[in-house]
Amino acid sequence: MLECGMLERDRRALRTRSTILCKQLVVDELLIQSLQADNILTESMAESIMAEQTSQKRSWRLLLLLPKRGPRAFSSFCSALQETEQQHLYELLTQSSEIDGKDAPAETFVDSSLPLPTQEVIAAKRARTHESMEFSLDTDSPINTPVLPCAPDFYLSHCQQSYRMNSSPRGFALVISNVTFDPCAAPDLDPRKGGEVDDEVLRKVFTELDYLVTVHRDLTAQGMRTCIENFCRRPDHRTVDSCVVCLLSHGVEGAIYGTDGQLLQLDWVFESFDNAHCPLLQNKPKMFFIQACRGEEMDCGVEQIDGPVRTCSPSCEQRDAGREGQGDANSRQRGDMGRPRIKLPQRSDMICGFASLKGQRICTAAMRNTKRGSWFIQELNTTLRLRARDTHLADIMVQVNSHIKEREGYAPGTAHHRCKEMSEFTSSLCKDLYLFPKYQPQY
What we know:
443 residues; 14 helices; six-stranded mixed β-sheet
């Protein structure tokens, strides 16, 4: 049985950093499993934490439990942070733990049944020129229909022409979601209201697709770079069949913003996973999903000449564009494509879905509902749940695009506040890519 009580020094470190932890901590299956393995959490405790509906509520419940779980709870929690690649929080806690009690008074840690203030409450302190436009008549939650399983007959008839996809887990998934931006370093980047819904939707759907998902919130450009580098170097990529990377932030063509207003070039991201830089994923499918604008222009649509008449209702849409006048972001130059020692193409086995369209003359903004999350992630979640059982991923992306095409919303800065969206995807896949959800071959 655990000895009651945490060391006062460690308890103070948790209490002092409680606000930051509740906002930035990602409580996922890997972190919980680590604490269970150290006998810090019981199975019932783990289930009660993961049953909470939001990331903040899971963090809140965990932080309430830890001080009561004995003197080893703090060190075990710090180790779990390192294992789940939350190094910034590990450093924050360990530095705080070393500081004597002479520092400034700690933030209050109150045991309350009320949820913590949301990002939208924090954001309300800053003036928003378009705040009055954000209203909602439809606050439905994202679809939570369980992922439909692949039938054995379908697997047997398609597996020979497809990428191998039967490891358990199928692979590792990395989700980086920037919701709140530094008001000093990035004053022109508004909070991405609804962005917290997106990362939770992605966590759930890819977990059900048998991926081990790690979510990171509110990283600077350098923080995103470090996170991606660490993810690429995971030695356990060797034992799985694929990987997934989801990046959600404000953006411009070819880059996305960190919370400090600095840009991370997407070309560098793709390069990090190519056959030269990530050999453990050679010949394995690498899936990227980018929820960000690729410019400032809005797709306001054109009048329909023929076809069915559509009706629409106001929603609460925003853009995921970046700063005004910064729509020109140059990509990094690619490395030498002709190295004779590399037998594979430099970049192969990749598929990337973008929330918005790139054209020769225009790059467009991505739309996000402040209550239900972004259009692109909503449709991706729904289509994966319903169609991954028997549909090639490229065809899933076509269906996502088709569904988004039928949407119409209202957003600030558009003609009559009406807007439309088109997503797109690029692919260097060499085989068919089916996810074969919930199917395990019998050997």
